Amino acid sequence: MGTSVTITTGARLHFGPLAAAGSTGGKFGGVGMMVSSPGFVLSARTACQDEYYGDEIVCGRAAEFVRRIREASVGGHSIPGIRIEFLETIPSHAGLGSGTQLGLAVARAISELANEPDVGVEVLARRAGRGLRSAIGLHGFASGGFLVDGGRAGSEQLGTLVSRIEFPAGWRLLLVAPSQSKGLSGAAEQSAFESQSPMPQSLTSNLCRIALMEWMPGLIEADFSRVSNAMHEFGLCVGRFFEPVQDGVFGHPLMGQLAEEVRHRGFAGVAQTSWGPTVCILCDGDASAQELMTDLASDSRWSDCVFRLTEPLNRGAQVVSCK
């Protein structure tokens, strides 16, 4: 068995599904990307019994993933005990894909320590019980970049990655969220999907048009204005569809006000990630991003918000093993 392993992940931004609530064809799907921070950095090694160090909530979630992974592993591909220390973490229920990145990181750590280093991300996801609705996070864990998930045809099938594009490395994303607010998750999230009316085929068609004919070519051409407008239009369409279950186009009213403010300042690319409350603002470089963050942070209207400046992540999670 391996002696120790360190796993470093990014965070996942999810701009919304392409189909939901009874639409025909592939279910859910979606558009998203990976950013370099916040992320999980965990160090793991074999132990006589399970030990967890770091944030108490994250440690509890990790312990549950270890239990699931042991139950799902076949042929003894597991370990008797594991010691995991969390050096960095992703805030939970903030729209940053913390559950999937944590589950896959723990699953990968266990496979590395059990001398099973070549397990594919789909197997890791099934062991950890992740990616059952959206596969953006698991494809992002594997390869990073800007990702389009074509959805899944069957209930047991994981979403198919139909496109991965390198996100322009010089662009930046400013993440903003109210400090005490959480997005929908767990039973509340499931209830929201079940109570939502079917997504009209016309809306799915429009979202596919934005993704295929505006967003993706804009990224390939590094056309900042085109990408910014596509990002906002896509997010607005998704937000309006989910407005009945999240009480607004944005999951938190303050973030709706923030979106209006930054667009008034000329930053067109504003969208919520997943159920929020985190909103991401696309900036064309460090200078403009830093200036915007400084201006917003000094404004009393956003005094209760957390600001994170991050960059695109165009690679998968890093795995460093020591024998």
Question: What can you see in these coordinates?
Answer:
With 323 residues, this protein is α+β, with helices and mostly antiparallel strands. It has two domains: 4-167, Ribosomal Protein S5, domain 2; 172-310, 2-Layer Sandwich (Alpha-Beta Plaits). Helix content is 39%, strand content 21%. It is built from ten helices and 13 strands. The protein has helices at 56-72, 98-113, 121-128, 136-143, 186-195, 201-220, 224-241, 243-246, 253-264, 286-297; strands spanning 4-8, 11-16, 30-35, 41-46, 51-53, 82-88, 146-149, 161-165, 172-178, 270-272, 279-283, 305-310, 318-322. The strands form three sheets. Strands 5-6-4-1-13 form a five-stranded mixed β-sheet, covered by helices on one side. It has a four-stranded antiparallel β-sheet with strand order 2-3-7-8, sandwiched between helices. Strands 10-11-9-12 form a four-stranded antiparallel β-sheet. Helix 1 packs across helix 2 (98-113), helix 2 (98-113) crosses helix 3 (121-128) and helix 6 (201-220) packs antiparallel against helix 7 (224-241). The longest helix is centred in the middle third of the chain and has 20 residues, at 201-220. The radius of gyration is 19 Å and the shape is globular. The mean pLDDT is 91.
Q: What are the salient characteristics of this protein?
A:
Ribosomal Protein S5, domain 2, 2 domains, 13 strands, 5-stranded mixed sheet, alpha+beta, 323 residues, Alpha-Beta Plaits, 4-stranded antiparallel sheet, single chain
